[in-house]
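chain below, 259 aa
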Amino acid sequence: MTQTAPAVAKSAAGSWTPAQRSAVIASFLAWVFDAFDFFLLVFVLHAVAADFGMPITSVTFAIVVTLATRPIGAFVFGRVADRYGRRPTLVVVIVLYSVLELLSAFSPNLVFLICVRALFGIAMGGVWGVGASLTMETIPPSARGIISGLLQAGYPTGYLTAALVYGLLFPLVGWRGLFVLGAVPALLSIYVMRSVQESTGWTAAQGTKHASAAAVLKAHWPLAIYAILLMTAFNFFSHSTQDLYPTSSRSSAAFPPAW
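prediction:
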């Protein structure tokens, strides 16, 4: 009888090493905290607008630039991870997006906030590709399907966490206090450094010559264009609704008075 994917993953997980488990945990949490830091802004758009004396539509530009710069981070940190390793690169992006989240809390005006969120988008863009590569190159191949789904679940988990933190703490600390709390994920870098090992896939590939990014794109440009258009559509489907849903629903009785 053929085993289901979860059964295969569960069976494989029983023989996993601590390093393999740590890679999954680190990558999942990196994605959770990445989303947490991003979505904190969508819950406080009104508060930021009121603080800076700007219309909400102007503040939403900070979300736009974050999403626009994510592909830059994905490309840059992807290349860095190929050269220097998945583990150190993941540490760098976690620290970067945490520091930039903290810096957002001290924004003196909207222009400063938008610039910081643009940089945040670059750091954010490096999380998924680096974390997923680290995990998939470390865990048993039989578990890659179910674990890839688990990692994807980190994004809505981050959204939910941001919603809970907003509901509980916004009346106490305000929007700037929430961004200060957004720096907490930097502590995850300590766990990565102490418990996560470099992926066996990356280690095994050292010493071999790899094709340049230009050569790969030239050889697979139709697939690259398809992937770019597909992910662009996915982002339009998701961010066009989820990012402004809290704002559009602020008058609902289901939300706390802080709205």
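The radius of gyration is 20 Å. Residues 18 and 180 are 32 Å apart (CA to CA).
thats it, cya
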